[in-house]
Write a structure and sequence with these properties.
By secondary structure, this protein is an alpha+beta fold. It contains 2 helices and 5 strands; from the N terminus they run αβββββα. It has a 5-stranded antiparallel beta sheet with strand order 1-2-3-4-5.
Length: about 90
């Protein structure tokens, strides 16, 4: 499956700087995991992020790798959410 390869370094760096997170794959796509639970996945048009229902956005499309850095707080919420939901 195709995915935004330009976002892979951003995701890898984010995971590297957050203890307890790891990079993995889901259906052949790069994904971020908190423990055994996926919280983010790279798709062909951006990132899909697992967030609590109270947060409006769960999918981030478009943009470029440099703009992805603004998503770090959202990824932190998603990682915390999946660990608390366990």
């Amino acid at each position: 499956m195709a995915f935004r390869a330009d976002l892979r370094p951003f995701l890898a760096e984010f995971i590297e700087h957050h203890r307890g997170l790891r990079i993995g794959r889901v259906f052949g796509l790069p994904a971020g995991y908190a423990g055994r639970r996926m919280f983010v996945c790279l798709l062909d048009d951006g990132l899909i992020v697992k967030l609590p229902e109270r947060m409006a956005k769960d999918e981030v499309r478009g943009g470029n790798a440099r703009e992805a850095s603004r998503l770090a707080p959202i990824l932190e919420v998603a990682a915390r959410f999946v660990t608390e939901a366990a």
